[in-house]
Write a structure and sequence with these properties.
Structural class: alpha+beta
CATH architecture: 2-Layer Sandwich
Distance between the termini: 26 Å
Strand order of the largest sheet: 2-3-1-4
């Protein structure tokens, strides 16, 4: 199985800039050992199950809740039977059809 989950999470009761809070969440993602890709609008994480990623998201909520009273998040899920590795394969498939490598 392969779960790709894109999520964005940040407090709404803190400063205008959210990068310090996003960095805290991204540190948790990085330490999870799961493959991920940071984008300007969120982070995409891949795992064998949605549950693995939900556990990571719950951990991020707990971390931010220590000093944030209100936390916003948006979550998109692409769950598919088959092996993991789609985080890279989906991009490679589009690049192949374009006949060139996309800028990261």
């Amino acid at each position: 199985m392969s779960a790709l989950v894109e999520f964005a999470m940040f407090p709404t009761d803190q400063t205008e800039s959210k990068s310090a809070f996003v960095a805290r969440v991204l540190d948790l993602v990085d330490r999870s050992g799961l493959p991920y890709r940071l984008t300007p609008m969120g982070t995409i994480v891949e795992a064998e199950t949605v549950g693995e990623i939900f556990a990571l998201i719950e951990q991020a909520y707990e971390d931010l809740a220590e000093d944030c009273n209100r936390i916003y998040s948006a979550i998109k899920i692409d769950y598919r039977k088959g092996p993991v590795g789609r985080l890279e394969k989906k991009i490679a498939s589009v690049e192949e059809k374009l006949g060139r490598k996309l800028d990261a």
